[in-house]
């Protein structure tokens, strides 16, 4: 370590002379008098934080330390490393400003000791420390190890040190030392923040218990789209009744949509099987079979709206394929479909039609008369509104019934299957001795057994904000107990039932106690630093500037750092 070089000599004269010579090299390189020679350095700020400026040369020096040579430009772009280096320097300057306020500093000896061991400190954005450290080979303490020791003697070698510093950062040893001074002071402020963190044994055990205890749940998935497709009655009679019960909602919807209904337009319904324009002809075979299956069912006198709800993949499928006025607003394929519809009679169903959008079957519902605009348009809007709202209501009713039956001790799988069939529209329910097709749909109500989970991770469910399925399950005391309310997911609702639960034991915690305390302390320290940085950023606000030129893709970083 460099501190050894300052101790002088009680040893042999030759060894003393060598030591003295090394000291002279460092003094000449790092002496304060050379500060003036650097005045010509560019003050073109790559990063500016309040009145603090990090010039471009220092930015690229930091980039050289953080991003190893040989990292492909593609990876640099993908990881956003130019931005990450800049954000790390922003955080460093914020911490340095705090260091001045708090009176935090570092001695020359401490800096030299770090340099002599090859420890180069860098600042990585606190939120990216773990990811970038792992990806770039930097310690989570923000240290890049530099090879500054002789292979033969395993002692610090100044010539090696100087060469490595220049090759890595394009900086002279003096410039590098000043850069490291700033990094070490910033690191010291981080250490002060970490030092405030306290973790009790009780807190650690509670956290450990949440992590180590395991539960398995039965999950009933109640998908809103399934109920919209197979359970909501969209007949004219049902929709007229719904309209009478919900006049305000319908009035608002019709007011916004009325402009899309014009006298004389062709009213159509469709069954659509979309086809990507890039799909090869040989891959269209299965898609064409789907539309031909729909055509066959229509020939067998199945209602058009029910076949559309079952097989169509268009946006209108949920409410029976009703498109309304066929015009330019339809988008791709409107011209071809319009020409086909113009040749049809009201109530007539077309053969399979192909457009750039895919395969279609049209039904001409007639030509819109001036006197019918309000009636026809409002009924169509009622259908679209009612499907969504009624599906919500049916989903909630189904989930509540599942919970009620499960609480009485009924087997969850039997309850779900029985209720699912009872909710189907008569057309989809089929005969009693037949399995209705909707009950094999991918999004049907179904029971799934979760993988084992702890209270922190929870079962694999895309619940909405504020929901905590893991906590709800662990709060259940008995096997087969059910969470009292369904949870909201991104597709509908979920009902949770406890299948099994194994709680972690205190005696096992005692075996891991030291490691648990250390791990939790480290995690809380990272969180404390993160919050500290956020507060500093909030105070600085618009006084943080990053030169967009340093973020430009494809830039030759090394030449810019020269």
Description:
With 562 residues, the protein is α+β, with helices and mostly antiparallel strands. The chain contains 22 helices and 13 strands. The chain has helices at 2-5, 13-30, 56-66, 73-79, 81-102, 108-116, 129-136, 158-169, 173-195, 201-212, 224-230, 236-245, 247-257, 284-299, 304-311, 334-342, 373-407, 412-423, 426-429, 469-474, 506-540, 557-560; strands at 45-49, 52-55, 119-121, 143-145, 214-223, 266-274, 322-325, 353-354, 358-367, 446-449, 487-488, 492-502, 544-546. Strands 10-5-12-11 form a four-stranded antiparallel beta sheet, sandwiched between helices. The chain has a four-stranded antiparallel beta sheet with strand order 7-6-9-8. Strands 2-1-13 form a three-stranded antiparallel beta sheet. A hairpin with a 3-residue loop joins strand 11 and strand 12. The chain is elongated. It starts with a helix and ends with a helix.
Q: Cα distance, first to last residue? A: 29 Å
* Oligomerization: single chain
Query: Shape from CA axes?
Result: elongated
Number of helical elements: 22
| Helix-strand category | alpha+beta
In total, the number of strands is 13
> Quick one: biggest sheet?
4 strands, antiparallel
Q: Please compute the radius of gyration using only Cα atoms.
A: 35 Å
Estimated helix fraction:
40-55%
Overall average residue pLDDT: 88
The largest beta-sheet arranges its strands as 10-5-12-11
Low-confidence stretches: 1-42, 555-562
Please state roughly what percent of the residues sit in beta strands, choosing from under 5%, 5-15%, 15-25%, 25-35%, 35-45% or over 45%: 5-15%
């Amino acid at each position: 370590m460099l501190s050894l070089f300052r101790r002088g000599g009680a040893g042999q004269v030759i060894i003393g002379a060598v030591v003295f010579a090394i000291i002279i090299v460092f003094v000449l390189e790092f002496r304060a008098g050379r500060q003036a020679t650097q005045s010509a350095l560019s003050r073109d700020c790559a990063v500016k934080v309040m009145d603090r400026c990090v010039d471009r040369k220092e930015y690229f020096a930091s980039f050289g330390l953080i991003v190893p040579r040989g990292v492909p430009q593609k990876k640099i772009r993908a990881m956003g490393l130019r931005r990450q280096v800049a954000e790390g320097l922003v955080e460093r300057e914020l911490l340095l400003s705090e260091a001045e306020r708090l009176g935090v500093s570092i001695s020359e000896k401490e800096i030299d000791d770090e340099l002599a061991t090859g420890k180069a400190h860098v600042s990585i954005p606190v939120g990216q420390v773990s990811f970038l450290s792992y990806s770039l080979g930097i310690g989570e303490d923000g240290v890049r190890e530099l090879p500054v020791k002789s292979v033969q003697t395993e002692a610090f070698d100044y010539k090696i040190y100087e060469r490595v510093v220049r090759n890595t950062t394009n900086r002279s040893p003096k410039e590098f030392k000043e850069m490291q001074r700033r990094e070490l002071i910033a690191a010291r402020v981080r250490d002060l923040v970490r030092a405030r963190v306290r973790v009790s044994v009780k807190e650690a055990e509670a956290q450990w218990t949440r992590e180590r205890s395991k539960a398995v749940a039965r999950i009933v998935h109640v998908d809103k789209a399934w109920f919209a497709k197979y359970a909501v009655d969209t007949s004219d009679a049902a929709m007229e009744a719904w309209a009478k019960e919900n006049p305000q909602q319908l009035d608002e919807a019709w007011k916004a949509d009325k402009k899309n209904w014009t006298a004389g337009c062709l009213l159509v319904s469709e069954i659509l099987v979309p086809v990507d324009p890039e799909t090869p002809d040989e891959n269209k075979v299965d898609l064409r079979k789907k539309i031909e299956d729909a055509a066959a069912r229509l020939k067998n006198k199945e209602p058009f709206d029910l076949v559309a709800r079952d097989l169509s993949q268009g946006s209108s499928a949920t409410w029976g394929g009703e498109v309304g006025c066929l015009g330019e607003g339809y988008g791709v394929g409107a011209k071809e479909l319009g020409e086909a519809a113009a040749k049809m009679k009201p109530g007539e169903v077309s053969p399979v039609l192909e457009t750039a959008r895919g395969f279609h079957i049209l039904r001409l519902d007639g030509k819109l008369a001036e006197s019918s605009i309000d009636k026809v348009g409002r009924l169509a809007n009622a259908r679209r509104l009612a499907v969504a709202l009624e599906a919500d209501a049916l989903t909630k009713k189904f989930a509540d019934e599942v919970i009620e039956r499960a609480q009485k001790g009924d087997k969850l799988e039997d309850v779900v299957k029985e209720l699912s069939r009872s909710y189907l529209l008569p057309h989809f329910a089929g005969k009693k001795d037949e399995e209705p097709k909707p009950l094999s749909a991918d999004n049907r109500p179904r029971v799934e057994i979760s993988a084992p989970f702890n209270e922190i991770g929870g079962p694999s469910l895309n619940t909405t904000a504020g929901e905590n399925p893991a906590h709800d399950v662990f709060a259940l005391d008995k096997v087969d107990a059910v969470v009292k309310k369904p949870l909201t997911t991104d597709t509908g609702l979920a009902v949770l039932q406890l299948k099994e639960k194994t709680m972690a034991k205190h005696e096992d915690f005692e075996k891991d106690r030291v490691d648990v305390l250390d791990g939790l302390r480290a995690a809380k320290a990272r969180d404390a630093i993160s919050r500290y940085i956020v507060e500093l950023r909030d105070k600085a606000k618009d006084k943080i500037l990053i030169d967009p030129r340093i973020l430009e893709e494809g830039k030759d970083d090394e030449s810019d750092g020269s």
